[in-house]
Design brief:
Length: 391
Amino acid sequence: MTSLFGLPYSDSVVVAGALVLGITSGVLGAFAVLRRRSLVCDAVAHSTLPGVCVAFLVAGVKDVPGLLLGAAVAGLVAALLMVGIERTSRIRPDAAIGVVLSGFFALGVVLLTHISNTADADQAGLENYLFGQAAGLLERDVAVMAVVATGALLVVAVARRALTATLFDPAYAGAIGLPVRALETVMTLLLVVAVVIGVRVVGAILMVAMLVIPTVTARQLADRFPHVLVLAGVVGAAVGVTGSLAATRGQLPTGPVVVLTGFAVALAAVLLAPGRGVAWRALRLTARRRQVRREAVLAAPEAPGHGLADRLARAALRRRGLLAPDGRSLTAAGRAAADELAERRALWSAWLAHGAAVRLPDAREPDPADLAGSLGEDAVRQLRRLAREAV
């Protein structure tokens, strides 16, 4: 990596750590985001702080594996506590998350303040678990992150089908004999693993962004869950590497720059994703409105029209040769288009009236603009027969 990017060794370690974080948080965060448990990510990330402090107080040294183990235990306890409060009381999930998040984070701040007031010089740098300090990563730290991440990703690869069934339909998963509670616990453990891997790089406060942003981006671009998982990992890796490179070149803090890079990517996906982006849907809606206005002119060209929309519709029909120069009568091609429009509308009316009686080979979504193409010629013949019999 040092030769590939032309970076100093220390910067290469940071980029490698961001790469591991991006892949892991992208894949593992998808299970929380698609369960609509994104706030759990934030609560677990904040809850790791007291675990780090307790691990330091117990060990007496700032040993990275030990601190990460403490963070993992605290995150897991917090996650299970949220689930327990939600299931055994009348407290709503958002309230349970707020209680656990604030309680654990407050405890972490108190412990961190207590440690900083001691004379132990080894405590310097513990606050980096709150805000992140990727520049302090060592090669062995990245190696530990990579080993833990590989284990978690292997669990996802092996148990993907069972995890997917539990994620989207727990009742069905239980009906076919899957241990739903155990699988939900596994998903919680995977979330904790992702948080523990990332707190050194982006910190407990910003870690939630790395868990949510890749899945938000991937969901805008893919429909199937396996594709979302893979794409989320790719997006996370790209965001981590790009953000860390930008931070090292600009001498900026790595965590915030990585998160800002991810925010820009997610915003672009929300706005521009094909078929789902806000801009894409706005253009499609505008085109549909223009089409509806042109069809209204085709159906009744002699009707008086007012406003800019009507003038634009008539101008478009004249350019296509469907409307005569006077703007009030149809050409031969226009009359043929009007007849086709009337046929489509009649067919759609027949579908609304008799669609329940039509036998389809599979589940299909009718398209009002192209009923024959979406349902098939056999369904159209059935509709026409049913409409004739109704008359």
